[in-house]
Design brief:
By secondary structure, the protein is mainly alpha-helical. The chain contains nine helices and no strands. The chain starts with a helix and ends with a helix.
Amino acid sequence: MESTVEQRLNFLEARVKTLEGLLGLDAVPTPSSSAVPPAPPRARPWPEARAPVAEPKPPLDLEEILGGRVLGWVGGIAVAIAAIFFVVMAVRNGWIGEDARMELAFAASAGLVGLGVWLYERRGQTQAALATVAAGIAALYASAAATTLHYHLLSPVLGLVIAGAVGAFALVTAVRWDSQEIAGIGIVGALLAPVLVGSGTATSSLVFMTIALLTAIGVVVYRRWAWLAVVAYAVSVPQAASWLYAEHDHRLWLTLLVATAFWLLYVGAALG
C-alpha cells in the first residue's frame, strides 16, 4: 500500500514537472516569504497656510491732525467766506460796477479752483489743495447765484447751466478725490449760496439750491457719508419750506408737486 502511494506521488511529480516544462514555468522564481514589497512613496504634506499678520496701525499723530486736516478745513472755510463776503459787500456798497464786480468774482473763484487743481497735481492730495478747490467751488457757485438772482446779469437758463456745471464738477471731484473737504466746504457752501447772496424766495433761488442738493445726494450715494446727508437736509429744508410757504396761496398744485419731489430726494438720500 505504501509503495503504491509513493509510486503515485512520483508519477504526479513527474507529470507536474512535464507541465511546467511545457508552459515555460521553470524560469519563474518562486516567491520568497521573506521578500517584502517596497512601500509606496509617501506624498509630501502641503505646507500649512499661515494667516497674514496684520500690520499694527500707526498711532494717531495729534500734531498732524491739527496741523493738516483742521487747519485745512479752517483755511478753506475762511477763504470761501471771504470770497462770498466780497460778493455780498459789493452788492450792498456798490464799490464798482455790477459787470466788473461779477467778472472779478468769477475770475477769482475760477482762479482758486485752478490753483487747487494745480497744487493737487504737483503736491498730491494735500489739505491745501483740497481746501483751495473746495473754497473755489463755493465761491464760484455763489458768484453764479448773485449774478443770476440778484443782478440779473445772466438769464436764469444760463445761470442754471453754470450752476449745473459747477455742481457736476464738485460731484466728480469729491467722489474721485474722496475729499470730505470738497463735500463739506464746496457743496455745503453751494447749498447756502442763495441765502448768503440774499436771493429771497424766488423760484430760481429754489432751483439753485436744488442743484446743489442733487450734488450732495450724489456724493452721499457714492461715498456713504451720512454726515453730509444730515447737513444737506438741515440746510435745504428751511429754504424749501420758505418757498412753499410763499407760493402755496398762489400755486397750490406746484407747491404740492415740489414738496413731493423734495420728499423723494430726501428718501433717496436716506436710502443711499
